[in-house]
């Protein structure tokens, strides 16, 4: 089976599994990167020809080029998923990526904000206008819930409840995030000033919008 055909078929399978368009696009870019390497360096054009040694050479090249272990491990994860799919569908007899191990990643120490720093950040937007209240509320949502950026900016009003937020996360997975009394008050104040600012006529339905309603 031609490598290019296998990538297209794998992409279709990802769509059927309801993976996000961004994830599918990243998978295909990474697999085409591998495809070009195998064609140029090893003259391989069919997935049945790929061996574990070829993948090792590719990952070693990434390491020699200064790619970080996390990036290389992300590539390896995609390759394992791709070849696992091909084996499951009967296109190859064995998975050449099956026995490959992740590179050891250095432990990253995450330095969090102190209470004083959080207080200063929240107090930076101390005004009572729409933008100040909106920005202060966005920060409060981040600090109080740990939600991702995309999850925050795509929040809809109907996802906000008295004691929790219904979050639509990665992979279309939903979860409930508790809301503290402080955040509940901040959200209430923001929604009141937002409705007043736009006279309840918003061009877009998102919770957090620009001063033009976008």
Q: Care to describe what's here?
A:
With 214 residues, the protein is mainly alpha-helical. The protein contains 8 helices and 2 strands; from the N terminus they run αααααααββα. It has helices at 3-16, 21-42, 52-64, 69-88, 115-124, 130-145, 149-153, 181-197, and strands at 164-168, 174-178. The chain has a two-stranded antiparallel sheet. A hairpin with a 5-residue loop joins β1 and β2. α1 (3-16) packs antiparallel against α2, α5 runs antiparallel to α6 and α6 runs antiparallel to α8.
Main β-sheet description: 2 strands, antiparallel
Helices and strands, in order, run as HHHHHHHEEH
- How many strands? 2
Work out the helicity level: 40-55%
Count of helical regions: 8
Based on secondary structure, the structural category is mainly alpha
Report the average pLDDT across residues.
90
The 3D shape can be described as elongated
Runs in which pLDDT lies below 50 for 5 or more consecutive residues are none
Describe the strand arrangement of the main beta sheet, using strand numbers.
1-2
Q: Whole-Å distance between the termini?
A: 47 Å
Rg for CA atoms: 24 Å
Our estimate of the beta-strand percent is: under 5%
């Amino acid at each position: 089976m031609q490598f290019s055909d296998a990538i297209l078929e794998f992409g279709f399978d990802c769509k059927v599994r309801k993976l996000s368009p961004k994830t599918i696009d990243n998978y295909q870019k990474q697999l085409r990167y591998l495809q070009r390497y195998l064609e140029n360096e090893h003259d391989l054009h069919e997935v049945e020809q790929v061996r574990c040694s070829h993948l090792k050479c590719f990952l070693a090249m990434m390491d020699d080029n200064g790619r970080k272990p996390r990036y290389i491990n992300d590539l390896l994860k995609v390759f394992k998923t791709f070849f696992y799919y091909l084996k499951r569908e009967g296109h190859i007899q064995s998975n050449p990526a099956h026995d490959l191990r992740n590179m050891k990643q250095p432990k990253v120490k995450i330095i969090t904000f102190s209470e004083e720093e959080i207080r200063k950040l929240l107090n930076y937007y101390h005004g009572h206008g729409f933008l100040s209240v909106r920005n202060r509320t966005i920060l409060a949502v981040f600090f109080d819930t740990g939600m991702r950026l995309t999850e925050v900016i795509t929040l809809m009003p109907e996802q906000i409840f008295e004691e929790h937020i219904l979050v639509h996360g990665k992979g279309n997975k939903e979860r409930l995030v508790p809301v503290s009394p402080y955040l509940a008050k901040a959200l209430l104040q923001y929604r009141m000033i937002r409705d007043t600012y736009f006279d309840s006529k918003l061009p877009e339905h998102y919770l957090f919008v620009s001063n033009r309603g976008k």
